[in-house]
Amino acid sequence: MRATKDRNFDDIAEKFSRNIYGTTKGEIRQAVLWQDLEHLLSLMPQRPLRILDAGGGEGVMACEMAARGHQVIFCDISAEMLKRAELAAAEKGVSQQIQFIHCAAKDVSDHLEQPVDLVLFHAVLEWVQDQRGTLEALIQCLQPAGMLSLMFYNYNALLFRNITLGNFGYIEAGMQKKKKRTLSPDRPLEPQQVYNWLDEMQMVTIGKSGVRVFHDYAQNKQQQQQDFAALLALELRYCRQEPFVSLGRYIHVIAQKPNESNVKDEL
Prior knowledge:
Blueprint: H1 13-21, H2 24-43, E1 50-54, H3 60-67, E2 71-76, H4 79-92, E3 98-102, E4 116-122, H5 131-139, E5 142-153, H6 155-164, H7 168-172, H8 191-200, E6 204-211, H9 223-226, H10 228-238, H11 244-247, E7 250-256
Parallel strand pairs: 1-2, 1-4, 2-3, 4-5
Antiparallel strand pairs: 5-7, 6-7
Helix pairs in contact: 2-10, 3-4
């Protein structure tokens, strides 16, 4: 595996698991993603797809896609995450449908025998050093008319949240991370920058959703659990509408590689 300065979660894998999947914010994240992905999959060829899950963490998405009959290539820079993903696949009985690769997302093309139909790249771009280069490398893994599911950490939402909290000194200091061993992303992205990159790479944006457009701004944190069903319904209802998309702690973008038969439907 090539040397890289991208963030590796070997040292905080258990913390990652608790905070990403074992919380209300994790449930909302999965619900919004799957609302988008269910529609996306309905627009794609109705056959087993070749799917690349780049930086796939504990393999939640990879296992679900494999359970649906698709062939998945999974990669992660973290040996610990790779181990957890392999264990999850074995427990769900889908190991035969997933190829596990220990490498950085930017290097995964070296391990592919042929292009893929769909790339999943969720909550990883904000952790890598060469953001544009990594995104471009993954897009090159797509076959013509292939789809990209990209979720990234929204700098503007981070700024807005800190303003509402009155953290003006922190903002003035550039909102730099105070601790290394934290799940606060290293390099939040300004949405327009990401959209510009996709345009430059000739990707056609099909749809956008905000992920956690209300949850993180709630003043009463107890309501996040006590009224979770109502909160989730509102998240799913408004996540594709502006100005809420742009307020999402994460933004999920679906984009397609050019081809004569480009999908015209909008999410």
